Amino acid sequence: MYPKGYSPIDQEPMSVCKRTSFFFSSYALSTVLMIGMVTALATFPLVAWPKEVEYGSSSAGPVFSEPAQVEYGPSAGLDPLEPAAVEKDSRSGSVFSLGDFAKNFSSSVNFSTEEEYNDNVFLDANAGRSDFITRIKLGMKADLAGHYWNISLDYQPEQILYSRNADQNELKHQFTFSLNSGLDRKITLFRNLAYLEFSDTVTRENLYSRRQPHDESPLVHQTTRNELRIYPYLKKRISRTNSLEFGYEYINTGYSDSQATDREAGSGLLILRKKFSRRMEGNISYRLGRELAHGNAFQDYTRQEASVGLTDQVGPLLTLTGTGGYTWLMYHNMDDSEGTYWNIGLSGALPLMKVPVIFYQYANAYRNSVEDGLFRLRRHSLGGSYDHRIKVKGAVFTQTESYQERDWEDASWGVDGSFSIALHKKIDLVLACGWMHNHFKPEDEKVKSRSADTSLLFRVLPWARLTIGYRYSRRDSNLDDNASGYENTIVSVRADMEL
């Protein structure tokens, strides 16, 4: 069932032949560009750097180190501008060796069981339906690192059982697999030049980008999201302070719910990075690609992005990060759109007190919704935290969301905070609360949401803990039927073990 204000658009999906032709032509263009870049990079002198020099090592002078970047752009996957793993200029050793396996392999197994009473599992506006919910989770994590690759696996299946709604029983999957590797590093021409990033992630996500409920009920507006990302790229260190990166990123996103829009995206990236000093780093990037929405040709578009990024450790207690650029969106079946985007972050500690942290972040970027295409997000957030004997966190925010393909504009603002203190060396008390106001246009609906949580955490053993929790949440709408409103109370007992 669609939310109020939603009307499906009659459209003809792009044919399979057309989509296949598009991706083959896009990939062929990127392949030609990549071959040209390989040829160009191969002309640079292959400097025999000293073996003790490592990327990111301060002892070797001002070498290249990738800056931290806040997320931007409509890509829902990992951004190649985000920090990568530390690289080493290894000249020897087998790709897969038992020594590496024994030394660099780590794993853990976790188990949890939870019994929960929920007085409104479907988040109904009127009289809710209560239920007892049992959750059983048995998961594992594993990490393996070698000279030429890093592999990470995290699988967390969860069985959810309902006492009064047995037909809603389900097995949820949360899965993350990632691989980062240098390709053919033993070949002199490609040494420290060709790399690969691969990841596959399965998570749960809210189906609707508007009127999102909290996580009170796993039955309301939830869908399973599977994202596959493949990013082969070339990276050449031109000098001690400069590096050039060129790659092709492919992202395939699928959802279990038929109302959600599956997507495929392919884009080429070119990034020039520069380390100005030990405290300041910057980059210039350009992205060209296309995105197809399966079954909704109105959401197909070609995207270009050009940006400049900077990270500056202004002082020992203050860090500034920022990315600014321009986006061009060329839709295949509707009017084009373009505009600037920004991500600015400022974080630091108060003078003479290194524990408290304050932060400010401004974001102005295009994002993808699950089923309603792109929207433009503008968000300001200001907050702080303190972690010394007691833990205090708090933030205020304001944001607007303007949808590209629909006459929707949503505004919201709110505040949330948490407080925790150790009552005993093995007992913690945690309190949290939140308040948010939403204004949805053109419906002119105003929604107020508030929530309060409290929990007691008992550290029974170093590898086991028990948590008793209580949560109350309420949402009210100014519309007569109060369709978006609900009231919900949850009481839970949870046991966690990790070996």
Task: Please provide a written account of the structure.
A hairpin with an 8-residue loop joins strand 21 and strand 22. Helix content is 7%, strand content 56%. It is globular, with a radius of gyration of 25 Å. The chain has a 20-stranded antiparallel β-barrel.
Count of alpha/pi helices: 2
For the CA atoms, what is the radius of gyration? 25 Å
The backbone outline, from C-alpha atoms, is: globular
Task: Profile the largest sheet.
Answer: 20 strands, antiparallel, barrel
Helical residue percent band = under 10%
Q: What oligomeric state is this?
A: single chain
**Secondary structure category:** mainly beta
**CA(first)-CA(last) distance:** 43 Å
Uncertain segments of ≥5 residues (pLDDT<50)?
1-96, 184-189
Order of secondary-structure elements? HHEEEEEEEEEEEEEEEEEEEEEE
Tell me the fraction of residues in β-strands, as a range: over 45%
Summarize the entry for a quick read.
The chain is mainly β. The protein contains 2 helices and 22 strands. It is globular and about 60 Å long.
Question: What layout of secondary structure does this protein have?
Answer:
Elements: H1 16-42, H2 98-104, E1 105-118, E2 131-145, E3 149-155, E4 158-162, E5 170-172, E6 175-182, E7 194-206, E8 222-237, E9 242-255, E10 263-275, E11 280-293, E12 301-315, E13 318-331, E14 337-348, E15 357-368, E16 374-388, E17 390-403, E18 409-424, E19 427-441, E20 445-461, E21 464-477, E22 486-498
